[in-house]
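Q: My collaborator sent me two sequences in one message, no labels, and asked for predicted structures for both. Can we handle them in order? The first one she listed is below.
A: Yes, handling them in the order given. First sequence, followed by its structure tokens:
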Amino acid sequence: MQDRLAEEKERLLSYLVKEGILKTPEIIRAFYKVEREKFVLEQYKEYSYADTPLPILYSQTISQPTTIAIMTEALEPKKGNKILEVGAGSGYQAAILAEIVGDSGKIYTIERISELVDFARRNLNNAGYRNVEVYCGDGSIGLREKAPFDRIIVTACAPKIPNSLIEQLVDGGIMVIPVGPITHIQRLFKIKKEGKRIKTKDLGFFAFVPLIGREGFK
């Protein structure tokens, strides 16, 4: 199976690069380095490089590779960044970011479902990532004790942009977050904090699971 997965990975990533979805060299290298099959459930390993979301646990998913690529490019992660991810899921997005920020950077990822916290930790540990910390808690209010963050990425849709996350972003920092109703497609936004102002760029329509919490959905 490994040979087939390697071929499918090459085919998928070549497509994402050819289409200009993946374009930053450091991000492309990270996508090649991280093995997605280490972050999916055993019964879905053969679909690791299908360009589709896959079920993980508790009605959650590992996002479609194209969506992860778009969000990662929009986030503009750099070596040495301190990044907060809201919604650890399987740990795959955190692994991509960990590759990019390197040993001088740090990834904090927060997940409300304790079983998913264990799942993400196990996957990240098995894949050898030591610059990622996984927390159990309400991601809609961020992780104040580790703030501020250079970047924040939210992998679940919020009803509105959480003030707590804006407050925990450094001046000049970037956040990528989907916003909209649970029952419809949402819009993905790239937000840049400039002093007391935020600049917002609409990246189009997507579908995400809801962000549950104090500043999310009840």
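Q: And the one she listed second?
A: Here it is, processed independently of the first:
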Amino acid sequence: MKIGPILGIMSTPRVQSSPIPSNQSESFAEVIKIAEHMGCTAFVFNPCEIDWAKNAVWGYYYNIKTEPDQWERHLFPLPDVIYNRIPNRTLEKREDIKHNLLIIKKRYGPRLFNPCFLDKWKTHAILSSNRQSRSFLPKTSRIINPGVIADMLENYKSVYLKPCGSSLGNDIFKVIKRDGQFNYIHQTLNQTTQKGQVPDCTAIVSKLPADMDEYLVQQDVQLARYHGRPFDLRVLVQKNQCGLWRRTGVAARIAGEGSITTHVFYGGSRSNAQDVILTAAKNYNFSLVDVKKQLSKLQSIVPEAIEKGYGESFGELEMDVGINHKGKVWFLEANSKPFRFDEPLIRSKSLVRLIHYVRYLENKWEYSERQSG
């Protein structure tokens, strides 16, 4: 008798003594443990190790009964639901993984969720076309020539240049026009910061590590500050046991000294969102009630708009949200492969909600199969 659905966590484990990359091991182990606690089975697998003829796949199970706990390789039946956690865009674009992902998408449909990373420009275009979500968006343009940056700087004190296909604040530039010169700060991939000054925007474009049309330029929304440093919010939304988007939790991230973003990788720190927003509301004299209303509206509109615009099935999204000194809420970007929240309550709730959604997908599929049969 089947107890619960089988969840396949799709990633890139390797056949070796430590098969799961260290930055994923703890998160995946947590999912497997909570799944077992809730009457389900979960394992991690590489999409290239599926044997479609045998309806089986080699995967890895985290066995807490061994001493010490360890990852074990077993042959599993094909999962009922697949959770895409391929860790980066480079791997997701690799030909063998792309080929297998295509087959999986055809066979599983919405039972494969979070099937791809998001592109910043595509996401912006989707939300710009939605009447309800566009009011949350900073002014943003694709960089088709250096003049696009210059035009933006005529209207705003400073701007950000962001790669369309990147995350974690990597390779972002902040540009400030001052006394006819252009000052820039560049957060590099190796988590260092480079500063410089150039005479024009053509020189700025020459500094970009990729083609300029792979970047967008976005107004600097002048984030409100907490203890003298800019902050923003990480909002985690997930689908629940009814397949409906709900907010799981929100946490504040405070920019590190000299950093142009709030990412922890670049010296940012974590803080309680309620405390940070309340302090900012008092310091800047804006309405806490109004900010909460804006956040509620944003989280009810944006996930559905993104899902519809991409034409894909997502089960969770992390949104980066800013608040300026007037209390206006801004949507900054979204991530379809959110990192593990370190806040214990948010993390715990997210794991339970993940398994609830897995159950929802399996029940919906089984009902559909019975109806068609």
